[in-house]
Write a structure and sequence with these properties.
There is one protein chain. This protein has a single domain, classed as Growth Hormone, Chain: A (Up-down Bundle). Helices cover 87% and strands 0% of the residues. Helix 1 runs parallel beside helix 6 and helix 4 packs antiparallel against helix 5.
Length: 181
């Protein structure tokens, strides 16, 4: 249950950054729709390749790799926030690299969670477990989007830093809970 709770906290934290993503592109990077779509495409490409390439390993080590995947996304968001806050301007290459790492981590996390659900839950309870996980995920995402919305366009980098720090702490807590089992 600690693992599930840490997943939901991490998802909420990551959604904070997702809630201000459009402002990262338009306000911080001063770019338009092409850059917005290009970064999403980088994330999706890394996701696809990572899910295919790491699938077997992830399935054999699902609890650990779920936290590694979430930690990768968190670290990528933290890198965007800190680089943007400390550098005179946020380089596009940093955002692209962060989206490569984040997309790969996202795939590893999703393969891991599906594996955990299918291997630790009795088959007759798969539907309920998936519904519970999905509902918790939606609530977590909605809460994160609301927090991101409160931070708004003027605090984009703060949102990315907050997102990364909270998510790393929650993933670390889940990791400690996992190791103690």
């Amino acid at each position: 249950m600690l693992l599930l709770a840490s997943f939901w906290v991490v998802i909420m934290a990551l959604a904070i950054a997702d809630g201000v993503y459009v402002f990262l592109v338009t306000n911080v990077l001063s770019r338009g729709p092409f850059a917005y779509g290009a970064f999403i495409a980088v994330w999706a490409g890394a996701y696809l390749i990572s899910a295919w390439a790491a699938g077997g390993y992830v399935e054999r080590n699902a609890r650990w790799t779920a936290l590694v995947g979430l930690g990768s996304i968190a670290a990528s968001f933290l890198a965007i926030g800190l680089t943007g806050a400390l550098a005179p301007s946020l380089p596009l290459a940093v955002v692209a690299m962060a989206f490569l790492i984040g997309g790969a981590g996202n795939a590893i996390y999703n393969v891991s969670v599906r594996t955990i659900l299918h291997t630790t839950v009795r088959p007759e309870l798969h539907g309920r477990a998936a519904a519970l996980y999905g509902a918790g995920t939606r609530i977590s995402e909605g809460s994160g989007f609301a927090i991101g919305g409160l931070l708004g366009p003027a605090r984009v980098l703060i949102a990315y830093i907050l997102s990364g720090v909270v998510a790393l702490v929650a993933a670390g807590g889940g990791s400690i809970g996992h190791r103690s089992r």
